[in-house]
């Protein structure tokens, strides 16, 4: 939901759950609760209450603007919490990933396939378990024998940059464990060094991102093993703090045991306990990558980024880093797709402009036989609709753990050409459209960096003053305010979130301009007046997309 009134939200990070203690009110004020402690937000009918479980400081800020001026609130909030830099141009294209490419040969074959098919790609990602041991923070040389050559070949064939996954976890077999343990760079427990989590039967401890020396150790290792070899972007996965952030673990048993994914409250860091500073953990981890990348490229924080990180967690001010936030390991079903749209709009309300998702969902829904299976027509339809939507997110990212009817590898394919001959042209057309919108994207990101003006814009941001329906519907979380939004200043996006449909209802807001028919349907150039619901044609190849102003201005970035 977009309107949080009535909600009770635990201020605890775990996979797919990254609550941020700030909000904007329809009464013309914004509020920031600057406490990194675990706690709770309660949005009651008569009052709002924020609590911290363990803290020595109460720090909050309130800003105001005329009612309905959400850009004014965002400008003032971002003046406190920080504004985002501008991202590197390559990051605005198509970012490709799957769980997982297992070795150098697979990555080079992938790059060759993109080249041969003339499909543009701007980033290719190496996912987890590419290392010999957790905490090595380097690619396993048995599988990745020549990292520099691989990165150079990918660049030559596709023009794409590369990104590698790293986890904060360190096992005792890692080449770095003894030194990190001796120097106090690992999180601990009250009873001693202890263990804080496990993965696939291996007990691990997370490195302490709140320790400046531990952050430097991490970056020095990444610089040697990746950055200097041509992989300059990092996927800082599992960095929720207090645990690996999963809803299950197995401790070496034969079957998974369901467990509460909340972090362990008594984990000790350089800066305090998980209970008192736990929400700072992902922020400090992002800081580790930011500091290293900035030093390596000799650039200042706040200036344009030339590389970046990707995280599923963050905190107030995460937008100051060259770091994308994605929504975590979602399940592949239609309800999740719908929920992801609303979640993205909530992220926008917090000031997180660098938001993205796993196109198609990450993992299978065990209650749905076809979920995440690339050979099943039901999933192919879901995937195409999800991928369409990511074209109109700040970052267009494809990732997932796919299955198929005949599985011969760790996971099945996830490339644009693997979802059936009839769907490949649709998928490629949206990838191409993403690149056609590059000038529009750059202009929109620049405005966000300069003023805090959001990229994804809930309907209330632009139309609360001109359309009373938007104001009323926002209060009750009507679908016309939770399932459609403005992408930048000119594009109205309404993802299709149900199967087997060829038409879709869209509400076209009343604008404050003088045009009689200000809205133009992208696919037909038909024009419509604002202030009405239209039932629009939306076959599988068309996401409902309207625009204000001329298409030429949009394509040229002349929109502000």
From TrEMBL:
GO terms for biological process: carbohydrate metabolic process. PANTHER family: HYDROLASE, PUTATIVE (AFU_ORTHOLOGUE AFUA_1G03140)-RELATED (PTHR43863), MALTASE-GLUCOAMYLASE (PTHR43863:SF2). Residues 452-546 form the Glycosyl hydrolase family 31 C-terminal domain. One of its GO terms (molecular function) is carbohydrate binding. Belongs to the glycosyl hydrolase 31 family. It comes from the Eukaryota. Keywords: Glycosidase, Hydrolase. The keyword Nucleotide-binding does not apply. This is Glycoside hydrolase family 31 protein. InterPro entries: Gal_mutarotase_sf_dom, GH, Glyco_hydro_31_C, Glyco_hydro_31_TIM, Glyco_hydro_b, Glycosyl_Hydrolase_31. It holds the Pfam family Glyco_hydro_31_2nd. Residues 85-441 form the Glycoside hydrolase family 31 TIM barrel domain.
């Amino acid at each position: 939901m977009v309107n949080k009134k009535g909600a009770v939200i635990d201020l605890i990070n775990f996979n797919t759950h990254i609550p941020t203690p700030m909000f904007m009110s329809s009464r013309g004020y914004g509020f920031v609760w600057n406490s990194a402690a675990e706690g709770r937000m309660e949005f009651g009918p008569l009052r709002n209450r924020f609590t911290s479980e363990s803290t020595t400081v109460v720090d909050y800020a309130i800003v105001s603007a005329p009612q309905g001026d959400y850009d004014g609130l965002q400008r003032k909030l971002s003046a406190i919490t920080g504004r985002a830099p501008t991202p590197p141009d390559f990051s605005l294209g198509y970012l490709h990933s799957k769980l997982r490419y297992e070795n150098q040969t697979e990555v080079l074959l992938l790059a060759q396939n993109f080249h041969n098919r003339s499909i543009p790609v701007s980033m290719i990602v190496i996912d987890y378990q590419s290392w010999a041991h957790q905490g090595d923070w380097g690619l396993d040389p048995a599988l990745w024998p020549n990292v520099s050559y691989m990165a150079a070949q990918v660049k030559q064939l596709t023009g794409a940059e590369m990104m590698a996954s790293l986890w904060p976890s360190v096992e005792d077999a890692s080449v770095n464990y003894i030194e990190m343990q001796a120097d106090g760079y690992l999180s601990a427990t009250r009873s001693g060094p202890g263990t804080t989590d496990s993965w696939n039967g291996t007990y691990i401890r997370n490195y302490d991102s709140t320790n400046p020396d531990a952050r430097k150790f991490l970056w020095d290792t990444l610089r040697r093993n990746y950055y200097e070899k041509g992989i300059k972007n990092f996927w800082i996965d599992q960095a929720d703090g207090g645990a690996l952030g999963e809803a299950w673990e197995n401790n070496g048993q034969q079957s998974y045991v369901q467990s509460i994914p909340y972090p362990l409250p008594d984990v000790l860091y350089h800066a305090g306990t998980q209970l008192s500073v736990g929400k700072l953990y992902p922020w400090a981890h992002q800081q580790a990558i930011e500091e290293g990348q900035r030093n390596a490229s000799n650039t200042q924080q706040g200036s344009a980024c030339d590389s970046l990180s990707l995280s599923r967690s963050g905190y107030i001010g995460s937008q100051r880093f060259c770091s994308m936030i994605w929504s975590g390991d979602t399940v592949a079903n239609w309800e999740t797709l719908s929920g992801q749209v609303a979640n993205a709009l909530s992220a926008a309300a917090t000031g997180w402009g660098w938001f993205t998702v796993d196109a198609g969902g990450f993992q299978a829904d065990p209650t749905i036989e076809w979920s995440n299976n690339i050979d099943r027509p039901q999933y192919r339809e879901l995937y195409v609709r999800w991928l369409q939507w990511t074209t109109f997110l700040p970052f267009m990212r494809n990732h997932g753990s796919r299955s198929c009817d005949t599985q011969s590898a760790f996971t099945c394919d996830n490339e644009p050409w693997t979802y059936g001959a009839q769907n490949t042209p649709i998928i490629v057309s949206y990838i191409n459209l993403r690149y056609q919108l590059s000038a529009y994207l750059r202009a929109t990101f620049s405005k966000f960096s300069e003023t805090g003006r959001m990229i994804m814009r809930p309907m209330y941001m632009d139309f609360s003053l001109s359309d009373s329906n938007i104001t009323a519907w926002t209060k009750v979380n009507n679908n016309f305010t939770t399932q459609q939004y403005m992408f930048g200043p000119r594009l109205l996006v309404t993802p299709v979130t149900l199967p087997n449909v060829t038409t879709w209802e869209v509400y076209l807001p009343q604008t404050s301009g003088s045009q009689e028919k200000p809205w133009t349907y992208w696919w037909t150039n038909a024009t419509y007046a604002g202030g009405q619901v239209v039932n629009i044609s939306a076959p599988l190849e068309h996401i409902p997309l309207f625009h204000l102003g001329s298409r030429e201005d949009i394509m040229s970035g002349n929109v502000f």
